[in-house]
Design a protein that fits this description.
Largest sheet: 6 strands, mixed, barrel
CATH architecture of one domain: Beta Barrel
Radius of gyration: 22 Å
Helix content: 25-40%
Order of helices and strands: EHHEHHHHEEEEEEHEHEEHHHEEEEEHE
CATH topology of one domain: Barwin-like endoglucanases
Strand order of the largest sheet: 4-16-13-15-14-17
Shape: globular
Number of strands: 17
CATH superfamily of one domain: RlpA-like domain
Length: 377
């Protein structure tokens, strides 16, 4: 099968139509009009036996992760009939190989390799009462933050939202990180933590657990953000000559900030984006709404990869080859591009250590229904 663009794939994947050449041209034209300002990716058909280490996969765990993801509407839309079949499958490997087809994700300029990083469930100390040293608020979404879903006006921009606040009758950008400190933010506070740095890294991870001074544990997860684009403070430190590019990691950034307390605000304010949280009754969950599974859940750029889709990845983890079926169950402000993923590594010091240093070349294959007509999607 010849190469098809990722956005053509979205149209096909949702419509479930087998295409003739003339229909394909129409779909291409529509995609070019809607996504003319965006880069495109290509999908290249492959075979399971050609996937790196496919025969070493734990097919039962892979299928179990897929079944859990099928509890969400996003995954059901993509794999309607297969979600039903998965529950009664008695041979996981047979099911995966016979019901799916792998397509390697390439970029528009022909690149087959991207970047894998890692993230984890952060751990903080906190209190329900603002009392030293617990003075840094973990905030819920501000009551005056307005979110405009552009899909209601421009269907081609379904993954885009405008965020801001009203000033008179005008919608203006919401407060940046720096501005938030000198303006009253009308939001409820979940709890207070004792570390400005831990709170900042919680925003980057997107979810965490807070061990309260009363012995209880609170789970918090991403709810919203202020609308400003994420900017990496590691790059800021490199541009300032404080760190070398090859030595940037969560660990080196944190250590530099601890060693330079007078410059903490300067560096953190470079990232104008602020994340707001909600209380959760369970451990880390992502944008898809399911509890994340260590080494099976990844965050993707949903402009290129549909949230809820199943993929196969090949990368290096702790200097060892890592190949696995993974589920696109989360998103992140720093995750940009077609062959780009952030893998969830769990909770605790080991997960934080691995995630903080992980930067690996990445190859990705998306697993499409073998019979897309049957999907009725």
């Amino acid at each position: 099968m010849k190469q098809i663009t990722h956005f053509i794939f979205i149209i096909l994947f949702i419509s479930g139509c087998s295409i003739e050449p003339d229909i394909e041209k129409i779909a291409q034209k529509q995609a070019q009009i809607i996504f003319s300002e965006l880069p495109r990716t290509h999908l290249v058909k492959s075979e399971f036996e050609a996937l790196p280490n496919w025969n070493s996969e734990n097919y039962a765990l892979a299928l179990d992760s897929f079944i859990k993801s099928c509890r969400t509407s996003d995954t059901k839309k993509l794999y309607k009939q297969l979600c039903k079949k998965a529950n009664v499958s008695i041979n996981p490997k047979h099911f995966l190989q016979n019901e799916f087809e792998p397509y390697e994700i390439n970029t528009d300029d022909g690149k087959k390799e991207g970047l894998l990083t890692g993230y984890y469930e952060a751990n903080l100390k906190g209190s329900l009462i603002k009392e030293y040293p617990y003075i840094y608020p973990i905030r819920k979404t501000p009551k005056d933050l307005i979110v405009v879903d552009l899909n209601s006006i421009y269907p081609g921009l379904k993954n885009y939202r405008l965020r801001g606040r009203l000033e008179g009758n005008k919608l203006i950008p919401y407060y940046t990180r720096k501005e938030s400190k000198s303006n009253h933010i009308d939001s409820d506070v979940i709890c207070y933590t004792d570390s400005k740095l831990d709170l900042f890294f919680l925003e980057i991870q997107g979810s965490g657990r807070v061990d309260l001074d009363n012995g209880e544990t609170l789970y918090v997860s991403y709810d919203n953000q202020n609308g400003h684009k994420y900017r990496a403070v590691g790059r800021y430190l490199v541009n300032k000559g404080e760190l070398k590019l090859e030595e940037v990691s969560l660990q080196t950034i944190r250590q530099w900030l601890k060693d330079n307390p007078k410059r903490v605000d300067e560096v953190l304010n470079y990232n104008k984006s602020v994340v707001y949280f909600k209380e959760s009754t369970e451990a880390a969950s992502g944008s898809l709404g399911v509890i994340l599974t260590p080494r099976r859940s990844i965050a993707v750029d949903r402009r290129y990869i549909p949230l809820g889709s199943m993929l196969y990845m090949n990368a290096a983890l702790q200097e060892q080859n890592f190949s696995s079926v993974v589920l696109a169950q989360d998103t992140g402000g720093a995750i940009k591009g077609a062959i780009r993923a952030d893998i969830f590594l769990g909770h605790g010091s080991e997960a934080r250590e691995i995630a903080g240093k992980l930067k690996s070349p990445l190859k990705l294959w998306i697993l499409l229904p073998r019979n897309r007509d049957e999907q009725n999607i």
